Amino acid sequence: MSEEIASMSEEVEASISEVSTAAQTLAQNSRISAEHTGDIKVSIEETSKAMSQVA
């Protein structure tokens, strides 16, 4: 019985570790996406200014 509990505990620990890694990866991807969104916004603003000057 105690071997089963130890095995289950190891499985739970591994699952928690996987979830933690996935959450960290998601957070990192979200941060990178936010940075890229800011870059896109700046590019759109610069393009809009250039178009206004040409028009």
How many strands, what sense, and barrel or not for the largest sheet?
Answer: none
- SSE order, as H and E? H
- The percent range for helix content is over 70%
Strand proportion, as a percent range, falls in: under 5%
The separation of the N and C termini measures 80 Å
Structural class: mainly alpha
Radius of gyration: 24 Å
**pLDDT averaged over residues:** 94
Unreliably modeled segments: none
Principal-axes geometry comes out as rod-shaped
Please give the count of helices: 1
How many beta-strand segments? 0
SSE diagram, text form:
Layout: H1 2-54
Q: Could you please describe the fold and organization of this structure?
A:
There is one protein chain. 96% of the residues lie in helices and 0% in strands. With 55 residues, the protein is an all-alpha fold. The chain has one helix and no strands. The mean pLDDT is 94.
